[in-house]
Amino acid sequence: MPKGFAASADQDPCPCGGGLYGRCCGPLHRGEQRALTAEQLMRSRYSAFARGEVDYLIATHPEPHQQASQRRRELQRSCRQTRWLGLEIIAVSGGGGDLEGTVQFEARYQGGVLRETSLFQRRDGQPEGDWLYIRAVDLDAES
Ligand SMILES: [Zn+2]
After folding, report:
1. Res. 67: pLDDT tops 60
2. Residue 140 Cα, ligand 1 centroid: separation in angstroms?
3. How confident is the model over 73-85, as pLDDT tens digits?
Protein backbone atom coordinates (compact mmCIF):
# COMPACT_ATOMS: atom_id res chain seq x y z
CA MET A 1 0.00 0.00 0.00
CA PRO A 2 1.48 3.41 -0.91
CA LYS A 3 2.25 5.64 2.00
CA GLY A 4 1.12 9.23 1.96
CA PHE A 5 3.16 12.16 3.11
CA ALA A 6 1.58 12.06 6.55
CA ALA A 7 2.54 8.42 7.05
CA SER A 8 6.14 8.98 6.05
CA ALA A 9 6.42 12.06 8.29
CA ASP A 10 5.19 9.90 11.18
CA GLN A 11 8.39 7.86 10.88
CA ASP A 12 10.59 10.95 11.10
CA PRO A 13 12.09 12.12 14.38
CA CYS A 14 9.83 14.72 15.95
CA PRO A 15 11.36 18.22 15.76
CA CYS A 16 10.89 18.61 19.53
CA GLY A 17 13.18 15.64 20.22
CA GLY A 18 10.50 13.52 21.87
CA GLY A 19 10.71 10.47 19.59
CA LEU A 20 8.90 9.60 16.37
CA TYR A 21 6.68 12.36 15.03
CA GLY A 22 3.76 9.93 14.71
CA ARG A 23 3.95 9.16 18.42
CA CYS A 24 4.90 12.61 19.65
CA CYS A 25 3.52 15.87 18.27
CA GLY A 26 1.89 14.46 15.11
CA PRO A 27 -1.38 13.36 16.77
CA LEU A 28 -1.66 16.77 18.44
CA HIS A 29 -1.17 18.62 15.15
CA ARG A 30 -3.84 16.45 13.54
CA GLY A 31 -6.29 17.02 16.38
CA GLU A 32 -6.32 13.34 17.37
CA GLN A 33 -4.98 14.10 20.84
CA ARG A 34 -4.87 17.14 23.06
CA ALA A 35 -1.92 18.39 25.05
CA LEU A 36 -2.24 17.17 28.62
CA THR A 37 0.37 19.50 30.07
CA ALA A 38 1.77 22.95 29.35
CA GLU A 39 5.10 21.34 28.45
CA GLN A 40 3.42 19.08 25.90
CA LEU A 41 1.71 22.07 24.33
CA MET A 42 4.99 23.97 24.26
CA ARG A 43 6.77 21.07 22.53
CA SER A 44 3.97 20.67 20.00
CA ARG A 45 4.05 24.39 19.20
CA TYR A 46 7.79 24.25 18.64
CA SER A 47 7.29 21.29 16.30
CA ALA A 48 4.49 23.17 14.55
CA PHE A 49 6.87 26.08 13.89
CA ALA A 50 9.47 23.65 12.60
CA ARG A 51 6.98 21.91 10.29
CA GLY A 52 4.90 24.90 9.24
CA GLU A 53 1.70 23.71 10.94
CA VAL A 54 0.20 27.19 10.93
CA ASP A 55 -3.37 26.16 11.79
CA TYR A 56 -2.14 24.51 14.96
CA LEU A 57 -0.15 27.61 15.93
CA ILE A 58 -3.23 29.78 15.51
CA ALA A 59 -5.50 27.37 17.40
CA THR A 60 -3.20 27.18 20.40
CA HIS A 61 -2.47 30.89 20.72
CA PRO A 62 -5.59 33.07 20.70
CA GLU A 63 -5.02 36.64 19.57
CA PRO A 64 -8.48 38.12 19.22
CA HIS A 65 -7.18 41.56 18.29
CA GLN A 66 -5.29 40.44 15.23
CA GLN A 67 -6.92 39.60 11.93
CA ALA A 68 -6.75 35.88 11.17
CA SER A 69 -5.64 36.28 7.55
CA GLN A 70 -2.81 38.62 8.50
CA ARG A 71 -1.70 36.32 11.30
CA ARG A 72 -1.67 33.37 8.97
CA ARG A 73 0.56 35.25 6.52
CA GLU A 74 2.97 36.30 9.27
CA LEU A 75 3.21 32.79 10.67
CA GLN A 76 3.74 31.27 7.24
CA ARG A 77 6.55 33.74 6.61
CA SER A 78 8.10 33.02 9.99
CA CYS A 79 7.99 29.25 9.42
CA ARG A 80 9.54 29.64 5.97
CA GLN A 81 12.33 31.95 7.09
CA THR A 82 13.44 30.20 10.27
CA ARG A 83 15.13 26.84 10.27
CA TRP A 84 14.64 25.33 13.71
CA LEU A 85 17.37 22.96 14.83
CA GLY A 86 16.42 21.73 18.28
CA LEU A 87 14.59 22.29 21.51
CA GLU A 88 15.67 21.95 25.10
CA ILE A 89 13.30 22.32 28.03
CA ILE A 90 15.13 24.02 30.90
CA ALA A 91 12.47 24.25 33.59
CA VAL A 92 8.77 23.64 34.07
CA SER A 93 6.54 25.04 36.76
CA GLY A 94 2.90 24.02 37.13
CA GLY A 95 1.07 23.27 33.92
CA GLY A 96 -0.08 19.77 34.85
CA GLY A 97 -3.26 19.52 36.87
CA ASP A 98 -3.22 23.31 37.28
CA LEU A 99 -4.89 26.13 35.40
CA GLU A 100 -1.59 27.81 34.62
CA GLY A 101 2.05 26.99 34.13
CA THR A 102 5.33 28.24 32.73
CA VAL A 103 7.92 26.49 30.60
CA GLN A 104 11.45 27.78 30.20
CA PHE A 105 13.21 26.59 27.09
CA GLU A 106 15.98 27.11 24.59
CA ALA A 107 15.21 26.72 20.93
CA ARG A 108 18.11 26.68 18.50
CA TYR A 109 17.70 27.89 14.96
CA GLN A 110 20.06 28.49 12.11
CA GLY A 111 21.87 31.65 13.16
CA GLY A 112 20.99 31.84 16.82
CA VAL A 113 19.18 30.64 19.87
CA LEU A 114 15.91 31.77 21.42
CA ARG A 115 15.56 31.60 25.19
CA GLU A 116 12.07 32.10 26.47
CA THR A 117 9.91 31.48 29.47
CA SER A 118 6.38 31.00 28.20
CA LEU A 119 3.14 31.36 30.10
CA PHE A 120 0.39 28.83 29.44
CA GLN A 121 -3.18 28.80 30.70
CA ARG A 122 -6.15 26.54 30.30
CA ARG A 123 -8.89 27.89 28.06
CA ASP A 124 -11.37 30.06 29.99
CA GLY A 125 -9.65 29.08 33.24
CA GLN A 126 -11.55 25.78 33.21
CA PRO A 127 -9.95 22.67 34.78
CA GLU A 128 -10.82 20.69 31.62
CA GLY A 129 -9.92 23.48 29.21
CA ASP A 130 -7.29 23.00 26.52
CA TRP A 131 -3.83 24.36 27.19
CA LEU A 132 -3.11 27.60 25.35
CA TYR A 133 0.03 29.65 24.86
CA ILE A 134 -0.56 33.10 26.35
CA ARG A 135 2.69 35.04 26.04
CA ALA A 136 6.40 35.18 26.71
CA VAL A 137 7.11 36.32 30.26
CA ASP A 138 10.83 36.44 29.64
CA LEU A 139 12.46 36.59 26.24
CA ASP A 140 16.05 36.65 25.12
CA ALA A 141 17.24 36.01 21.61
CA GLU A 142 20.87 36.00 20.66
CA SER A 143 22.49 35.46 17.31
ZN1 LIG B 1 7.26 16.23 19.53
Report:
1. yes
2. 23
3. 999 999 999 999 9
Tell me the C-alpha distance between 45 and 50, whole Å. Answer: 9
List CB-based neighbours of ion ligand 1 within 5 Å. 14, 16, 18, 24-25, 43, 47
Confidence of residue 1 (pLDDT cuts 50, 70, 90): very low
Ligand 1 mean position, distance from CA 20 (Å): 8
Q: What is the DSSP string of 105-135?
A: EEEEETTEEEEEEEEEEEGGG-TTSPEEEEE
Question: Which pTM was predicted?
Answer: 0.91
Say which CATH architecture domain 5-142 belongs to: Roll (3.10)
Question: Hey, where are the domains in the chain?
Answer: 5-142
